[in-house]
Amino acid sequence: MENTNTLPTVTPQQLFFKRWTTTIMVALGIIAITIWQYMLDPQATEAVLASTVRSSTPLVLGALCGLMGERSGVINIGIEGQMLMGAFIGFLANVWTGNLLFSVFAAVFSGAIMGLLLAYMSVTLKMDQIIGGTVINILALGLTGYFYQVGLTTDGKMQSISLGFLADIPIIGPALFNNPPITYATFVLVFLIHYILFHTKWGLRSRSVGEHPRAADTLGVNVFKVRYINVIAGGAIAGLAGAFLTLEAVGSFERAMTNGRGFVALAVMIFGKFTPFGAWGAALLFGFANAIQTQLQFADIQVPHQFIGMFPYILTIIVLSGFVGRTHIPAADGVPYEKE
Amino acid sequence: MDDQQNSDKNNTSAKDRLSALWQVVSVPVAAVLLALLIGAVILAVSGANPIEAYAALLEGSFGSMAAFGRTLSKATPLIFSGLAVAFAFKAGLFNIGAQGQLLFGALASAVAGFAITGLPPFLHTTLSLLIGATAGALFAYIPGALKAYTGAHEVITTIMLNYVAINITDYITDGPLKDTANGNIVARTPEILDSAKIPYLGEIPAGFLLAILAVVVVWWILQRTTLGYEIRTVGLSPHAAKYAGMRVPFTIILTMVISGFLAGMGGAVETLGIVGRYQPGFNVGLGFDGITIALLGKTSPFGIIPAAILIGAMKAGASTMQFEAGVAKEITDVIQALILFFVTADMIVRKLIRSKTENGTGVTLSGWGQE
Q1: Fewest CB within 10 angstroms: A17, A107, B59, B367, which?
Q2: Residue B290's beta-bridge partner residues?
Q3: Rounded distance, CA A131 to CA B89, Å?
Q4: Which residue of chain A has the CA closest to B349?
Q5: B108 touches B171 (CB < 8 A)
Q6: Sorting pLDDT into bands at 50, 70 and 90, what band is B360?
Q7: Residue from A284, A233, A242 nearest A76 by CA
Q8: Which of A146, A309, A322 has the CB atom closest to B328's CB atom?
Q9: H or E element, residue A273
Q10: Residues 227-256 (A) with a CB less than 8 A from some CB of B
């Protein structure tokens, strides 16, 4: 975020708290509830937390994919399709080779290819970016549906790696430090992308291209190149989210298995104010809602499962309606750049 | 001499009109051919015989009067969903939620079809259709109002509402309104009464004629009414519309409601004319097909008809193709996605066919934060 309008009397700390008050209050509320629940039923609470992290992972990755593109001015509605393609190619690679690491790379690579396609449509062809993303989604749905054959099996999926004594920390230990590799990679990516966006020359260039491409161009930044690279990198991250689904969480592929996660990730990105840490927090909130939903389905409550199942989608709508107007959106987001 | 000149004039104007028509249809036609070509490559790569597959596809869709009737009945709901998406495009709105609105339309018309008794056939059908369409319109009001008042982008809200619609309709057909006749255990509503069914005129479904009528009405609203003018102005520039004194939020909501009305009617036509009841999973994808059809038809109401017949033919012929050529039905989804790609990436196509027209898809959508 830019600090140009800050009055000299406001310190960055004050600004931080002003901007994130709601988020901090919500987080404190959830922490309080969690500790209280932990005292009542430690096992169930740990299960909810672990499930929170699990279901937030593809959302964090999806949101990171989205914000890579959007920070540099390309709207990415095709996260869903990029994720689905990554999930499918990762799964196929696992079926053929049985090598999980190779399969993850295959998924990431296929996501990057889909990102390249999006970049080509939105940067080079200057197509409407929302339609371009929809093309990606429908294409991924069609291709994976056609090439998928029922009955393919794999040797297995990635297993959790416990980080020693860290995993024994009460409440958060099992949820944070006893995870499979892609989940750890997600934690690292959040920090890494924050660093790249806000503390490197590349990040400054990306953000300037997203806010004012003409000015960036005048200063010698190659707008097209920056957008291409960011959108492709975003696609690769979405591919990793797909790999998470087929190589880590479920272990197999189903048609249309992403189930709207790519779109929920977009809401997560907006809710997180287009920042990696914001997206992480928002994704954890969604994951938490999802985990509670799963718990409710096991519990003895007389609510039809369909109503519990809609909860994450309704939450997305509420969040989007409540926050989109209060977020700074990159000024050139969605606008193709025409060189003079 | 005069005659000579006149006929010359007529000739050139006919020629002009022909070349104008060619400019409009060349890109979609080339896009379809390119998509079929790449589809053939994919078929060949996956070990099938593309010629055999396409021949079977053609036979199953246009090979006989019965096949042609099947194509038209597949095309009927598609015309409605295509119109729904195209109509919203005119106001710069992307109604991906046509799917969800269509589900509610299908379910509501099924309920009207079996629960209302004692009405004469024509009246019962009309009433059920209108109830279905209204259900779709009401459901589309939600994303319209959210867009107009909070700025929540309709692409995300409508997709989320699609999942909500799936869940609610599943619950209703597996719970309160489940068909219990003959020990049925499948989630579905009872069958609609004969008086609610849309008849067939020979092989041609009467619903198809209704769809054509809808096309004309939509064209008339867009091109000949003040409302249509407002909708198109909002689509081109919400700011200009606002400064011209138009009620932009109202127009956005009304556009979504009309779009939902059309989608709901598509679901109702499917239920009353083909399925005969509401059963989850029977109309999956019709709303999404609407996106392809709207763009293939260049968002023009009359362009929707051939586009919907084309996609309808692929659906009608898919089973024949699977049966005779042993090709998985999903290849039609791939071809459809490729059509969508080439129609929207029309720069590629125009380069290939050396067309100089610069018309594009004519659709401009808003980003996240814009009104």
Answers
A1: A17
A2: none
A3: 11
A4: A125
A5: no
A6: low
A7: A233
A8: A146
A9: none
A10: none
